[in-house]
Design a protein that fits this description.
Number of strands: 7
Shape: elongated
Order of helices and strands: HHEHEHHEHHEHHEHEHHE
Strand order of the largest sheet: 2-3-4-1-5
Distance between the termini: 79 Å
Largest sheet: 5 strands, parallel
Radius of gyration: 24 Å
Strand content: 5-15%
Helix content: 40-55%
């Protein structure tokens, strides 16, 4: 991709609704004083583009960004944060690593810490570690997760009380769908009616919208076309719904009764 193409892609991502929502949340937390609760929550359905918004915020705000995995322990979480902050091969006792994280965050008070897949920290009983880091550093912290994340955080009163600044992610609308098409396949001319059908059938799921846009591109290439219209495009949309199983009774052949 050319430099101008990359710039256009970044511009289109910046204009996406959920990118703007997360950016607004980070900016709001940064604007607060250290005497206010500078911990926020960004939550919503899987596939709505939350992680893409996180990666954009990471670049825009020089955020410390980690995406938690199922296998992570407390020590590995601390190690991952330190690596993201430029520490090479962090080692030592867990308490010393936590102090190091707090020290580095405290040196740049407005540099946000963004924790993606934060649900996993609640499920694994590790969310108090993030609360401890926040309390000691006062750096802005954003917890990102699924739509049930606020309910999960309510189980831990000290975290819930500090994270009352919450923003809900939204499904893609037609404008977002247009911007994704322009970002990924700028040479295609996709009719608005087809983009609206795509948005409706995927329920605004950004990940599935992108998969279908790839399918549009392949169809257009095979057809030798640059225009893709709702009247001509025939392949089914990728919606994520499982195919309905055929009734097993239709294939049962009734047994003949043996003559007595």
């Amino acid at each position: 991709m050319t430099a101008s193409g990359t710039e256009n892609k970044v511009h289109n991502f910046a204009a996406l609704k959920n990118v703007a929502l997360l950016s607004g949340l980070v900016a709001e937390l940064q604007s607060m004083s250290i005497h206010e609760d500078r911990m926020g929550v960004f939550y919503g359905m899987s596939g709505w583009g939350k992680s893409r918004a996180c990666r954009y915020a990471r670049t825009k705000y020089r955020a410390v960004y980690v995406e938690v995995r199922d296998t992570w322990t407390r020590k590995y979480l601390l190690r991952s944060i330190l690596i993201e902050m430029g520490v090479n091969n962090p080692t030592g006792p867990m308490a010393a690593m936590e102090d190091h994280v707090i020290q580095l965050l405290g040196q740049e008070m407005d540099r946000p810490l963004i924790i993606d897949e934060a649900d996993k920290l609640v499920d694994k009983g590790m969310i108090e570690l993030i609360r401890s880091i926040y309390d000691a550093s006062k750096a802005p912290v954003v917890l990102v997760g699924e739509e049930v994340l606020p309910a999960k955080l309510s189980r831990t009163e000290r975290v819930a009380r500090r994270s009352e600044t919450r923003v809900a992610a939204q499904p893609c609308d037609l404008s977002d769908t247009r911007k994704l098409a322009a970002a990924f396949y700028p040479s295609l001319n996709i009719e608005d009616a087809l983009l609206e059908r795509l948005r409706a059938e995927t329920q605004g799921n950004a990940a599935r919208i992108i998969r279908n846009l790839k399918q549009f591109s392949e169809w257009a290439r095979n057809a030798g076309r640059r225009d893709v219209t709702v009247a001509e495009y025939e392949p089914p949309m990728i919606t994520g719904e499982l195919p309905v199983a055929r009734s097993s009774t239709s294939s049962i052949i009734p047994m003949r009764r043996r003559a007595s």
